[in-house]
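Whiteboard transcription, Tuesday session. T.W. wrote the structure tokens on the left side:
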């Protein structure tokens, strides 16, 4: 299976979920194809005070956790597992090789590899997913690279996960979610659980990110599972 995942960030609230997902995927050894919509750019700055330049993007602009200096124990264990085989790791139970990398694609770049089904990936996540993006996906629109990449994953029968956060939901939004589910899209609302020993906001974020990883069949130890 390809060790490549597409991550698209759109204009819904909840940018922190997308940033954390990037951190975890890279730590777990996955290469990430990242695209960011103009609305997501605004949300990143408003919610996280992260300024990104969509025309001159650098991964460092996202302020992802530092591999050597992070105090995030979960991320540290993921990174250790990605680079060094450790039999006692409770995050990953296997050696995944080396940490992954992030490759950025402009939202208007239809020459990007993820615009074609000939480019192999293990799946795609739209996180967070705006209502407009979801409507575009289920109506087979391709007005930007986010939508085009989603159509590619649908036609190639690859995993596609969308993470809406908005609430409450209108009848039309619920109808879009129903259509998405019918064609095989995993609709995974950013609705964290509270049964895993929550003490910080990060615990709530990790619950949602962990559920995304579950859908992609990526082993992790971000949260304590029910009954464990």
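and on the right, the sequence the group agreed on:
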């Amino acid at each position: 299976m390809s060790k490549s995942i597409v991550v698209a960030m759109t204009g819904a609230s909840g940018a922190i979920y997308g940033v954390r997902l990037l951190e975890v995927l890279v730590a777990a050894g996955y290469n990430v194809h990242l695209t960011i919509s103009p609305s997501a750019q605004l949300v990143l700055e408003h919610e996280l005070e992260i300024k990104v330049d969509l025309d001159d993007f650098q991964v460092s602009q996202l302020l992802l956790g530092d591999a050597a200096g992070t105090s995030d124990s979960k991320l540290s264990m993921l990174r250790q597992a990605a680079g060094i085989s450790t039999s006692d790791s409770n995050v990953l139970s296997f050696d995944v090789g080396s940490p992954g990398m992030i490759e950025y694609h402009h939202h208007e770049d239809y020459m990007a590899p993820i615009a074609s089904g000939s480019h192999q990936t293990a799946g795609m996540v739209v996180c967070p997913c705006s209502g407009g993006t979801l409507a575009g996906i289920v109506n087979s629109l391709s007005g930007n690279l986010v939508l085009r990449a989603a159509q590619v994953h649908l036609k190639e029968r690859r995993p596609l996960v969308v993470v809406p956060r908005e609430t409450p939901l209108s009848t039309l939004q619920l109808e879009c979610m129903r259509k998405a589910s019918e064609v095989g899209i995993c609709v995974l609302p950013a609705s964290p659980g509270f049964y895993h020993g929550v003490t910080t906001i990060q615990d709530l974020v990790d619950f949602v990110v962990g559920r995304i990883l579950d859908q992609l069949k990526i082993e992790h130890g971000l949260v304590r599972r029910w009954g464990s």
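Someone added at the bottom: The longest strand covers residues 4-9.
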